[in-house]
Structure formats: structure tokens, C-alpha cells
Amino acid sequence: MLGYRFTKYVPNPDGGKSAFENLLNIFMQLLVYTSGDVAEALDWLNQLDRQYGVTNDEYAMGDFLQDLKDKGYIDEEQPNSGVFQITSKSEQSIRQRSLEEIFGKLKKSKPGSHQSPVSGIGDEQTTDRRDFQFGDSVEQIAMTDSIRNAQINHGIGDFKLTEDDLEVVENEYKTQTSTALMIDISHSMILYGEDRITPAKKVAMALAELITTRYPKDTLDILVFGNDAWEVEIKDLPYLQVGPYHTNTVAGMELAMDMLRRRKTSNKQIFMITDGKPTCLKEGAKYYKNSFGLDRKIVNKTLNLATQCRRLNIPITTFMVAQDAYLQQFVREFTKANNGRAFYSSLQGLGNYVFEDYVRNRRKTVR
Hints:
Elements: H1 19-33, H2 38-52, H3 61-70, E1 74-76, E2 84-86, H4 88-103, E3 114-131, H5 143-154, E4 167-175, E5 177-184, H6 197-214, E6 219-225, E7 229-232, H7 249-261, E8 267-274, E9 280-283, E10 286-289, H8 296-311, E11 316-320, H9 325-338, E12 341-344, E13 353-357, E14 362-366
């Protein structure tokens, strides 16, 4: 029989993905929970396979492990050692997946576009022309148009090029932003049976991927803070672990401000991922600690730095991964002192936030 036979469309429950892609998605999620420990992630994946049958006879765990090696997601620490580590390809993939999970797929746009209605010296030329003004750079001069103006104004016989003949190309002015990203790795991020550090790492990796891929001309500095604060690199994010630390938010903010002070850009901001409770200060060589409630001595020093950042025009956006009411109250106070922003997220779904914008003085739910 010639022709086509039409039947009811039954979509693929896996969305058309291969067995490797489905397993890779689970494996990448497990790597975040295990802080990049390949052996532990594979062990968890094997347990899931035994319990839920995520593989089959056609594509088993051995096939998946071989594909991970062949496709460059893992490699051996030493030749023939059997001890695996993730590669830079896996690190980038984890960040990208975190970005897609939290912020959704971004619409395609030209990288680096912090647009401004102000015209000026930039790298994006427009079709507009205007007369030369004192202070314009030589690179902006439209030579063909300027020579044509000189011929019209002075003629061929007495050719000369004067300032009045010059035209310049109007360039689109684009801003650049310097961001300091603070990540809380204190013990409270895993306290009371709640894993807060994993959502925090996901948010951090999503922000890092957003800034480095969509705004490559911007700068990003990353730091972690516990009893003290220190700088880390983007590639270190999947491996971050909570330590036996208190929360020295002051040390983190001081380091973030110092990082931004070294940047020459005029637009600066701080992103802070925390459970919202500062519990530590460093006084000389000693630490002042109080984990019970909100110590006013620690809180006041933290709020003073938030106010100082506001005076320096450095807004602070706080990502809070805890639902405790009294912790949220501190974040509101902190955000109001800085005139910044705050996102509150449950541990079950980072896609929904209650967004408090003290700049616009309104409240809305972001979904």
C-alpha cells in the first residue's frame, strides 16, 4: 500500500535522550553532593541502579564508565591506578547544568551587553555621525567622511583638513561590572540534618556560569568564609565542603570589599550565599564567637559594613538558603542597611524565590 499511515504520537518519556545522557545527568547531580568525589558518586549511582534499575542489559554501568572516560568527563589520577577524578569539562558541565536548573535557559543575546542609554567611547560602533568635539579619541574619527568634508569646504586646489571638517563615529557605551561572590562554608550549612551547602554550591556555580558566559567582559572574584575568609577559583566550586567553622560574615565582606577596591570598573556588586547567621568576629589574633541567637556585637559590625558598602555604591545581593524566621529577619535588616536585594529559597526548590528589592521598595515572587 502506497502512502503514509498516521498514528497517535506517544512522546519518549526520556525526551529523546540517550542512555548515556540520562545517566550523565544523574552523575553530575551526584558529583555536587559528593563535592567532586568520583568514586562516591559512582557508588551512589550503582546503589540507584540496584534499587531502581536505571541501566539495562543493552547499556550497563560498565558501558557508562567507559563512555565517561572516552568522552573526557573523568580521567585517572595516575595511569592504571583505577582512581578517577573529574576533568575541567565536567566542572564546566556542572556549572552549566546548575545555571539551567536555577535560572532556566537564557535567551540568546550578545555576550557582554550591560547596555546603557549613554553614548561614549566603547567597542560597539553605530551608524551615527557627529562633529568632532574636544576629548574624542583619534580612533573615533571617520576618515573618509572627514576628507569628503574637507574637499567640499576647501576644494581640491587648496586642500586642507581642519578641525571643523572632522566627523566622528558615535560608539555605543557599554558598562562593565565587577562582582565579588561570597560563599558561606560554616558548619551551620549542614546543621540540623539540612544540607544547605549543596544548594549554595548550585547557586554559586550558576552565578559564575552566568557571569563568565553572558558577560565575559565583567570580572568575577570568588571567596569562601568560615572563621576566616579566603579566595577560591571558579574551578574549585564543585569541590567546596563545609568545615568546622563559625560564620565570620565580617571577614568575608572585608575581603570582598578589598577585592572590588582593586578593580578599576565603576560598577561593583557583592553576591553573598549564606544561611544568614553571623556568629564570629576576629579581634587581633583571637576569635569572638557566639552561636546562640544573634549576637548584637557581631550583628552591629556586620550592619556597619553593609552601610559602608551602600555609601560606596556597592549593592549586596543575598541568596539565603534557610527558612528560619529569625534568620530571615536579620537578612531583611542587613538588606535594608545596604539598600540591596535578597533571595529566599527553600532547600526543595531553588527555582522559586521571594525577591525583596529595597531599591524599588516592592515585593514579588519570582517563579
